[in-house]
Structure formats: C-alpha cells, structure tokens
Amino acid sequence: MEGYKGFQSFLFLWGGQLGSLLGSSLTTFALGVYILQKTGSVSNFAITLLCMSIPGLLISPFAGALVDKWNRKGMMLASDCLSGIATLGIFVTLFFSQLQLWHIYTAVIMWSIAGAMQFPAYQAIVAQIVEKKHLGRANGLIQMSDAASSIVAPPIAGILLPFIHLQGILIIDFLSFFIAIFSLLVVKIPPIHACESFRKKQSILLDIKDGIQYLRLNKALLWFLTYFSLANFILGFENVLLQPLILSISNTKSLGFVMSCIGVSMVLGGLVMSAWGGPKRKTRGVFGFGLISSICFTFIWICHSIPVMCIFIFLSFFFLPFGNTCSQVIWQSKVELNIQGRVFALRRMIAMSLMPISYLLSAPLLDHVFTPLMDSHALGGQFLGGWFGVGENGGIRLFLMILGLIWVLTSVILSFHKEIKLLDEDNKLKDSVVPASVS
C-alpha cells in the first residue's frame, strides 16, 4: 500500500510538472516565432538555443551539489519561481516597453539555470517516493511528457498566437507555474537519512568533487555516460541536418509530417514503457533497444521515399524512450539517495555536453567534407551516388549513415561489457567516496 501511495504522489507531482512544461513549451515556440519574425535572422535564433543549453550545462555540477545539500522540494520550488520570474519579466518588458533581444537572452539564460536546478532534484525525488518496481512506469511517464510537449505546444501556440499574441502566451506560461508549485507543496517528500550538519558544512566544491569521485570509482556508470553522450552527439547532427534533407527532396508539408512522426513515436514509446515498466534486466534494455533504434536510424538514410523514411524514423524514435527509461531506473536504483543530486547533475552535463558541438560542426563537415566527397565528379559520388544521391543531399545521407553505423557498433560492443552487466545484479555500487558520516 505504501508503494501505491508513493506512485500516487508521483502522479500528482508529475501532473503539476507536465502542466508547467506545456506552458514553457508554448513560450519557447512563441518566442522563436517572435525572433524570426522581428529580426528575420536564423543566427539570432541559434544564439537563443545556445543560451538555453550552455548556462545550464555549466551550472549543473553546482546545482547538483545544492540538491544534496539543501531540501530537494525547496530546490524545485526555487526553480519554478526563477522560471516564473523570467517569464513575468518578459511580459512586463513587452507590455510597458519594447522587447529587445538581450531581454530574451537574459530570460532564456534564467530558464536554462532553472532547468539545471530542477532536473537532478526531480530525478532524486522520484527515486525517493517511488518504489523500485514502479520506477520504470514513472520514468516512462516522464519520457512521454517530454515528448508530448513537443507535439502539443507548437500547434496550440500557432492557433493562439494570432488571437492572444505573445503577451497571452506568457500569461498562460506564468499561470502554469502555479500548478507545478501547488503539486510540490501538496506532495510529501520523505527525508534522506544523512548527516545534516556535515552536508551543510562541507563546501560546494568538495560536494562536486565527491560526485566526480563517485563516477570515477563506478566505471560501469561512466561507460553508460559515454554511450549516451555518443548517442546525443549523433542525434545533434540529425537535429540540424534532417530538415534541410527533407526540404531538398520534398516540401514543408512533408517536413511537418516527419517532425510530427518523431514526436508521436516518442509519446507512444513513453506510454508503452509506462504501462510495461521495462525488462527485468535494465542494462539489456538500454543496449538492446539502443541497438534497434540505431539500426533503424541507419536505414533511414538509404530511403528516398518520405513514407518509407517515416517508417524507420518512427521505429528509431519509438524505442528511444525504452532505453532512456531503463537507464533512468539503473541510475535511480543504484546511486545512493544522499549523493544523487550531485551524480545526476554531472550525468546530465556530461551526457548533453557534446550536443552543442555537433550543432557547430554540422555545417562545416557537410560543406567541406561530405558534400565535396559526394559531388557527381568525385570518387564518393561515382561509387555511392546510386545509393545516396549526389551533392549536398548525398553528403547528408552518407554522413548520417556513418554515424548510425558507429551507434550500432557501440551498442553491440558495450552490451558485452563485463562491468556493465554487473549493474543488473542486486549489488551496491562503490560508495567509499561518500564520507563515513553520511549513511
């Protein structure tokens, strides 16, 4: 019965966070439209994306240390309040003055910092209130909500913008934070059995060092991070290059269909994972489903028909939440509660750190390496043009297929790693890094 109550508490907390996430997604879409319409500059939009990612990555280790040092519910409340203040600031500026780009960049940086504070606190709280046997279901719902917001928010914002404009979207977003705050205030979070005086006296830098040392001692978790960092690095290239590829062979209607296919597949994958809970051996789930996703990802780029491409895109992204959920369960069940904030924050920072690099490398690699290689008169174009096409189109396909094969190979190799296999056993990880006064 206690486990059932714990899952009910999670559902209430998850519902509040979902409401806030949808509101924030509305604002993100509306601001992107605002920037592109007012400035007509893709570079300004790209700067906004960098402001959304880089500050959060840089602040993550400090945020994780504070999550372990302070009250985790308080950290999530502080995160929601910071996001709400940034949203309110944009609204006030827009209402009383003229909104400038630096106003938007400032707000986006605040949202990025708030997200870095919320992620480790949210993940650690889920591990506290949900029984281990229900962690797969809980994380499946979290995966589903992240994907659902990317599907639901753009069309809703597109419908609302002509009627309520950016100001109305900002009001909806601001009110959504009260839903999240209310759910946090209602849900009871059990205390962590740790030495409070020690946690408060130790410096934040030593806390961060403890988290780094913990990962260094547990090599299996580091291999997990390596795998997901590589997958995110590959998907970063796909995020940039998929749209120009689709537009080169079809139109914006087809692009919208493909992007919707990605979102729908991830929502359905999250729902199935939530209902199922995942396989008993989670590491097999991570690399097994990762292998399926990577194989389907590889086959996307030899397809020249949009419907056939969508089939492989759907399968590839449908199984992503399966592997992600299995990974979440491993981290939440293996890492001690009193160090989860630090470890989860470092995990997020490392796993996502390569994505901005792939954004920056996409255009130079395509323009200077793969497009010339697949020129109709070049060696690559003559031998591989029949499979991939020539020019930029062929270069994108060849590049992404090579990345897919690297993903496949990595999934196979790491699935046989001895230390990773031990994570499926009910043994504890090395915790000698955690001081003796912390239990």
Structural class: mainly alpha
The H-and-E topology, N to C, reads as HHHHHHHHHHHHHHHHH
Please state the average pLDDT score: 85
Distance between the termini: 26 Å
What would the principal axes of the Cα set say about the shape? globular
| Biggest beta sheet summary | none
The Cα radius of gyration reads 22 Å
Beta percentage is under 5%
Number of helices: 17
Number of strands: 0
User: How much helical structure, as a percent, in the residues?
Assistant: over 70%
List the helices and strands and how they pair.
Elements: H1 2-39, H2 42-69, H3 72-96, H4 101-129, H5 135-186, H6 196-201, H7 204-217, H8 219-249, H9 252-276, H10 282-300, H11 306-318, H12 320-334, H13 340-352, H14 355-373, H15 379-388, H16 391-415, H17 418-421
How would you sum up this structure, described in words?
The chain has 439 residues and is mainly α. 83% of the residues lie in helices and 0% in strands. It contains 17 helices and no strands. Helix 5 crosses helix 12 (320-334). The radius of gyration is 22 Å and the shape is globular.
Keywords, separated by commas or semicolons:
439 residues; 83% helix; 17 helices; globular; mainly alpha; disordered C terminus; single chain
In short:
The protein has 439 residues and is mostly helical.
